[in-house]
Amino acid sequence: MKQLLLVEDSVMFGRLTKARLEAEFDRPVYWTKSYAETVKILDLADNNFSMALLDLNLPDAPNGEVIDQVVGRGITSFVFTSNMSNSLRDQVWSKKVADYILKDDPNSLDYIITAMKRLQKNEDSLILLVDDSRLYRTNLAELLYVQKFRVVAARNGPEALEILQKHPEIKLVITDYNMPQMDGCLLCQMIRAEFTQEDLAIIGLSSEEDKGIGARFIKSGANDFITKDSFLVEEFYCRVNQCVENIDLIRQIKESAVRDFLTGLYNRRYFFNGGEMLFASSIRDQIDLVCAMVDIDLFKRVNDTYGHDVGDLVIQQVAALLQNRIRATDIVARFGGEEFCILAVNMGISEAKVVFDDIRRMIANTPILYDNQQKSLHVSVSIGVCVERTESLEQMIKVADDFLYKAKKSGRNCIRVSF
After folding, report:
1. CA distance 52 to 249
2. CA distance readout (Å), 287 to 199, 278, 280, 293
3. Are residues 419 and 387 in contact, defined by beta-carbon separation less than 8 angstroms?
4. Closest CA to 240 of 172, 292, 169
5. What's the pTM?
6. Pairing of strands 289-296, 381-386
7. Mode of pairing for the β-strands spanning 126-130 and 150-154
8. How far apart are CA 113 and CA 119, in angstroms?
9. Which domains does the chain have, with CATH numbers?
10. More confident residue, 172 or 252
């Protein structure tokens, strides 16, 4: 995120807003109090602002001229105003602003900060537009770009289904009803055959006056419906953001259910679910599979000597080192306490010895900083590795655990491999 621009002629309100924004976003906020001052700083700091909060009425620009100046430079803008009539609302939205906020609302600052943070998240959100009208796709895409969404487009249902297969990270599909080859409701049904409402959201669009189209969209699997020719930009943004936020929330809940709260690694539950699939795949495709148990040596002594807070730091750093060394195709999980389990695919015996001994040495040689990074300590790990093709995942884990015990008995800070 680049710098923030605040344009506000009220000294009291400007001082309060500047302080709040700097505290929330941890970056300086440049504050101007007039149109002329704003143009000057924009010329001096060209392309250095990512977002701006603008007063609609300034002494030298009473009719929102500052909005055109800032938005025209590609800066995502929010508008503060003391009042908002219907005609003024239409005027503000026509200027391609991200949102507007009423100053007399006691929660206005909270709202604007939430909206700004949401736009930062939107940069990671991909939306698919499906419409046979190039003009309409372009118009909707421009609205979504203002909210910093990433956008891909399709001309019809088959194209949309192909794009979804290539981009499973898509969070929202916005689709028209009347299209060649496949109407929007049929497209919804085909999407729902592959993606649940927990995976992605769908908003249906139609210019027809038939009120039954909305119900058909919902029954076909859409989350929401908008009539093309009559929606307000404000309404469109609210519906889109609500759909995307719901998908993000569901994904967050799912992720937290399979992640260890302290380290961010997968937990024991996920290890067995994902591990069973890897194990079955290794049997089916005759792929090498390696299971390793990793345990921090003398961890109780660390807790007793330095305290549990430092003990948590030790666990977190060992977890981070493991995560950074293990490939994305492998699974590394915290099994509990100071113990971790790794499942690695396509790793032979000789490679396993090299990789896990490298991990052991890396952990032993990396200092763990504590007490505001003023002090450090070193820990080591013992590792047991199973490279045998056993009858089950549980059996692989047991073999690795047995060899972990042998590593401990051999003096710790070493690996033992089953072959």
Report:
1. 27
2. 30, 10, 10, 20
3. yes
4. 172
5. 0.75
6. antiparallel
7. parallel
8. 10
9. 3-117 (3.40.50.2300), 123-256 (3.40.50.2300), 268-418 (3.30.70.270)
10. 172
